[in-house]
Design goal:
Four copies of one chain form a homotetramer. By secondary structure, the first copy, chain A, is an alpha+beta fold. Chain A is built from 15 helices and 14 strands. In chain A, the strands form four sheets. A six-stranded mixed beta sheet of chain A has the order 2-1-10-11-7-6. A four-stranded mixed beta sheet of chain A has the order 5-8-9-12. A two-stranded antiparallel ribbon of chain A has the order 3-4. Chains A, B, C, D: This is 4-hydroxyphenylacetate 3-monooxygenase/4-hydroxybutyryl-CoA dehydratase/vinylacetyl-CoA-Delta-isomerase.
């Protein structure tokens, strides 16, 4: 397993192909640092006795000790440990730990490649296993590039004016394929070792060019990452651990990129495009059953704490709102537990979370995220929105005023009052907080997608039959 | 295991101590029949090859085949099977299967009696085990009499003007105890073999008279059941299976009732009153994670079916509402699965569902029940409220009009249109439906009780600490 | 103005054409009595000094004193008084006062007939004015028969297999027209003097047969009313004023019914069918801005009172829920006030409520009705669902038990505790309560219809333009 | 009336007493510019023929033409015009127009000062009228400094450890008073001419030092404003009108500030502290019935437009969500209309909005604000959160990629797609957007305050009486 330092060293040596705010950047650019620090926690924790058991496990391929983020699930415990790991690590960085993306992609490919091979006699699974060994041994960071830019939402991939609006195979060559297109919303991509591309949806028979999956180094020729960096407002004096963590999302452009065959895991098998897309969605929504409760943990901790600081910690409406957050967190987490407890073995002998429950959990998180921010705002009062900047608490002319007038519960020092309100302001009344709101709705698939997922596989006919039975209805002859 | 007939035979021979609508009734009274039919399904299913595996299991005490409703959980599978059994059987009767009450009471007593014995050197657990063997061998129906009438809600048991407003020990005698009081909302009690009484809440040191648990035959001298019967509107011609099922709730009055020591399972151990109350609540809320999804199944089946009959089954808003009900059902059921998957072994070596998840599931069911009825009403249109009585569909003068004008989707016969709307009317626009709404809020503990339960055991300090860490707050010295 | 007695006398002499539960009934049948009593309140109040000013006004046609339910609005005060009258009278009968239907129909016809005349040179308005004078002088009760049975909801009137599924003109004769069809959900019809039929929707050019409006006596040859009666559970001893009020809904069948020309107010003018349908909807939704707050008044009164009786009247969650009901009532009522304050003069010089606000008010009432019942159930506890029947409070064998154990707040007598819980049970945990839930969703048009109404007339382009302006977007050239 | 230029000229000459981010700033500092531009619109519109009638009116004191923001309401039309003016102008700046604060303060003082004079024979009203003439003639901008910092929320003003935590009278002198304390969340204060201080709550008899109201120039000796500036992210190339508008909030510190008697409008009359506080709240919540609909207008315009751009403008779920926003906007606006239509004349002969409806409107806006952002996020998709910075759309290396891959509906140019998504990102996924969320909850009083306001004045007893009547309950004798 790599150290955080080794990971950063590797990044430094990659080909610069990242643009942020109009500039080409190498991977040691300050704008990437918050995201890199976040990922770093997954390396550090693997070596920290307190978290080692949670964050490492044994590879089923090599028997070696590996980071759990590179693992293929073979037991319910594997799944539950992953969920717990995510919640724990997200709590340490104040939000998304990001590394689940690669983990979810390899697990999705693991079963699907086997199924394709069974159906068509291909050897994708063997290729993938070989790749996985490399991935685990080198303790790599993978980005899952799934969401295409999608163009006109009312049209299918093959109907778009510009065929590149969904990533596609431009040419098949002897030694590999050429692909073009653009994947959006690619968190972690700018500081990932590898980009793992998979389809974003079901494909029709005529859409074999768009049924493609592969993995390539993130600095491969032809790949350009145009990015937006998200991090907490920087601090002047009153340092806070969470300010060093952040994320970076990429629009990942593939401009005639060559992928060698050994890195191609699907190539035209349209029937399995939807299966792979959903397998990733399933694993990723399961991940959300770990990370969203972590965000809610922070919300409820902040709400409870600010109520204490305001002197209203025991007020019934506060207690009730905090309990509301507990329920939200645990319904989402419990849905993940249920998904693990009823997980199903796939063709490759690995486990996949129960799609129904992973979707229910992600759905419930998605429809509640804005309300969680609302609760925090409601109990915090208006100060997070009007808190004067940090320097006004430092500058001699105003420092005393600020400390005098921020005082609430007299048992809490002015400094701690200040630190808490600044945290809440930076966390929930900020650009970063707003990004978390959007991510809470759309990351891993928006609620409407989970509803579609759920109802697609739900046996509604059996429910109609219950009613027909109870109501004494026999089917009409036709 | 008994047959349904044997059960009814036994009921017939019990001492009449049931009042409904001002009359003393024996247990073969027509007003009790719907409830008895419901319980009957649990006997019949145990002998039906299709359900036998689900509804029977092996006693850990005797090794004999027993009805699962008499079983003490010793594996996750025990718990999950119970949940599945409840959902299945509730679907067959169109609502509450009722028999879980006794099951939840004996499981609650099983661990708690052991804990009391460990603490005080008593022999309650041994008594209980002996009782359980009798209970299982005779395949009995037990009612859990928990909720006291409670008098002034702002006062504790010992503060009430009338000490009987919580069931209490009036006298301890050599061979047993004398109790007085009244337990409310006792579903199944009028046709149960046994009444199992347990405390409704925590008790203070001064409340040892109110810390009492026991089991007695339902027709014991001094016990009077004043009841209300709930069943679907009866039918004249268009029969429907669900109309034969119903329930009966009792205010169970204990007027100086003698309980022999071998049937006493708690007697003054105030410290364990709350533990027992919560253990029952936990098991019963876990049961709700099986039965409420069954009610939602009916809601969603009816909603989907009436939309088909109305010709709007594919309309986006219909599809979305039905999916909403799917999510509701599966979040509740999934919470039960999570409670089972993370169940904990108690002092007696049996399993108890994870309190956190059983409460989350019950809570979510409770806050959604009215909305479920709203969805069904919304898609059904106004007809369930204005549908002329059945005889208007029979009487020659109006029959043709009714059949002509009830037609919607022309592929569905007038008779089936009629049957479905009558079912929906009788199910959701009726006294019985309204009882289900109240029961959906309060049965097993209203949502506010689950929130109290959850937050009582929740480690909110650890969440505050996450925020303190992220915000860089060190504790104030005091 | 008529007395209640005169009204009943008239009913008694009408041709029996009412079926309920398979029997032909005359209009003094006991099943109609609760509905008739409700309407009676509008006659009595007109003669009661306390309400006279609210319930009577001066006809703009004759200058005579008339019941306000027969009035055509000519001032904002007319509109606001009507709203206030409805809220007041609904409070006296515990629900829908019903008589608004005819009022809303005549107001809708008043403007629309004028518009048709202007467009086509017809004389509908003159006919209507003549009819109105008769209507006012005789202080009549009118039912608005609007909602057709509608058959397959995915098809238009002219596309149905059976053309009668929307009321239609079968034949035009020299002295009048022949119509056939069936109008559903016709509250008040069985004890109305007159049935006023209007279209339920917009009609296309090819649907002139379905564009028809007229008024006829309710016992006209060919008219058959197949009804369902709704009333509170009857009482044995503990009388309560609200139990004598109820309602009756009719499926009103028109089987080749002759309507003389002077009673025909639209005959084929398809362009105005939608206008008339919406004009009635507008007036009727405005009425809902008066009656729904009355229902909420009862909900909040009952919730506040039962909390007092339970001893928890000052508990924060109770206070908050009651305040929630206050807000609901007043947003709905306030929307009505806004609709009145911004009402618009129509072609006939009368006022019509502002469609936007009447729809907002009715919408908000519709989406909250189930939640209101949920609040009442939540604070009441489970007793309304399990309260033993009245006779158990009378019968000597159980009376004392019941009185002993229903006690809560010791300052309230057992009798009053009993009366309140019986009221809540009969009001909210009953067939009648469930009918009110359905009516709350669908009566006057379900929330989805108000949304459609609102967005049809809303200037969304102007809102897009605000955004284009702010965002600096100039329109694409095409 | 002043011009925008005259206003800015005046600001420039005021004593610098503003700190932002640790620096003392004069009033032509760039950080104040966005706020000043916003206020400028109220000057420009008064001279713009299109808005002149809306934004100007005639002073009831002088008969002169004045800006409507300086007017005292004397007719329902005055109130409705103000509401319309606010909605219109907020639409022009993309949010809060700010100037209502002073308007609401003077209207609140107008009636209250009269009432104090009547009660105590003081001459506050005369002082105020004199001040108002000066205020109107000079077309001044006033800030209402109401919300105290409040310290420990569980304690009253007089119970705080530090008496300054509520603004208070330190000393009464012959020519005036000395005050100390700090008012928080003072929008507009840094570029206001005047600060008008009023109490934040009811005061007890012992709290006469805290019952104080006055108006002083914003640069008075002893006044220090510590501020936070909020504005949209600046643009590099793709300019958008809304980016030049913003706001600035101040913690306004009063450190032994002298106020001459002619500027003191309350001085120790504790009985009227609550009355004045609520009078301002009433007027300000009425203002919110104009400004929140303007924010919703932008939300719905953006949602509808982005749906068009995504090619899904006609999708049922989009149409429904947009309609949801229409209802929200119009319920809030309609509540304002109702408040105006039922406004009441105060002791000074001016009108005050109906407190019930102004609170209902503000409440409903407050509980919906986060949901409105959720709707916009939901329909926009994830792009507002991951949109690369503007320079990536300018830089040659990435410009083409960006324009190629942002394309959706092919009828909309890449430039307009870009502009819209940048607007939505800057508006809803930004620090400024988050400030609007907080302001939407807390500005003018959070929803919990409106509920308290409503229930304080609500006649709940009359509702209990309706239920007692219907239920046949006669009061217990005690």
């Amino acid at each position: 397993m790599r150290t955080f330092e080794e990971y950063k060293e590797k990044l430094k040596n990659m080909r610069p192909n990242i643009y942020i705010d109009g500039k080409l950047r190498s991977r040691d650019d300050a704008l990437l640092e918050p995201g890199i620090n976040t990922v770093g926690v997954t390396f550090d924790a693997a070596r920290d006795p307190e978290y080692e058991n949670l964050v490492t496990t044994t590879s089923h391929l090599t028997g070696e000790k590996i980071n759990r983020f590179s693992h293929i699930y073979h037991s319910q415990e594997d799944l539950m440990s992953k969920q717990k790991m995510i919640r724990t690590l997200c709590g340490k960085v104040g939000g998304c730990i990001q590394r689940c993306m690669g983990c979810d992609a390899i697990n999705a490919l693991y079963g699907t490649t086997k199924e394709i091979d069974v159906a068509y006699g291909t050897d994708y699974h063997e290729r993938l296993v070989k790749y996985l060994k490399y991935y685990q041994e080198n303790d790599l960071i993978g980005n899952a590039a799934q969401t295409d830019v999608k163009g006109d939402r009312s049209k299918r991939p093959s109907e778009q004016q510009d065929p590149d609006l969904y990533l596609r195979i431009v040419e098949k060559k002897e030694n590999g394929i050429i692909v073009s297109g653009c994947k959006a919303h690619n968190t972690i991509a700018p500081y990932a070792d590898e980009i793992i591309a998979i389809p974003t949806r079901m494909m029709g028979k005529e859409e074999s060019d768009w049924a493609v999956a592969f993995a390539i180094p993130a600095d491969t020729e032809g790949v350009t990452l145009v990015c937006r960096s998200t991090s907490p407002r920087p601090r002047v004096k009153y340092d806070a651990p969470f300010t060093k963590y952040g994320a970076c999302d990429s629009m990942t452009v593939f401009d005639n990129v060559f992928v060698p065959w050994e890195r191609v895991f699907m190539c035209g098998e349209t029937k399995f495009a939807g299966r792979l897309a959903l397998a990733f969605a399933n694993n990723h929504r399961f991940s959300y059953c770990g990370c969203k409760p972590a965000v809610t943990d922070i919300m409820m901790g902040a709400t409870a704490l600010v109520a204490d600081y305001n002197g209203i910690g025991k007020e019934p409406h506060v207690v009730d709102e905090v309990a509301e957050l507990m329920v939200t967190a645990e319904i989402v987490y419990g849905s993940g537990v249920a998904a693990a407890a009823t997980s199903k073995k796939n063709a490759a002998g690995a486990l996949e979370p129960n799609f129904l429950y992973s979707n229910c959990g992600r759905y419930f998180a998605g429809v509640n995220i804005y309300h969680e921010y609302e609760i925090l705002a409601s109990i915090s009062g208006g100060l997070p929105a009007t808190l004067p900047p940090e320097n006004d608490f430092i500058n001699e002319a105003t420092k005393e005023y600020m400390e005098k007038y921020i005082m609430r519960n007299p048992e809490i020092s002015a400094e701690n009052q200040h630190k808490l309100f600044r945290f809440i302001s930076d966390y929930s009344c900020s650009s970063m907080g707003a990004v978390y709101q959007y991510a809470g709705v759309h990351g891993g698939g928006s609620p409407i997608m989970e509803k579609i997922g759920i109802r697609s596989f739900y046996d509604i006919e059996s429910k109609k039959n219950i009613v027909k039975y109870l109501a004494g209805i026999e089917d009409d002859e036709k």
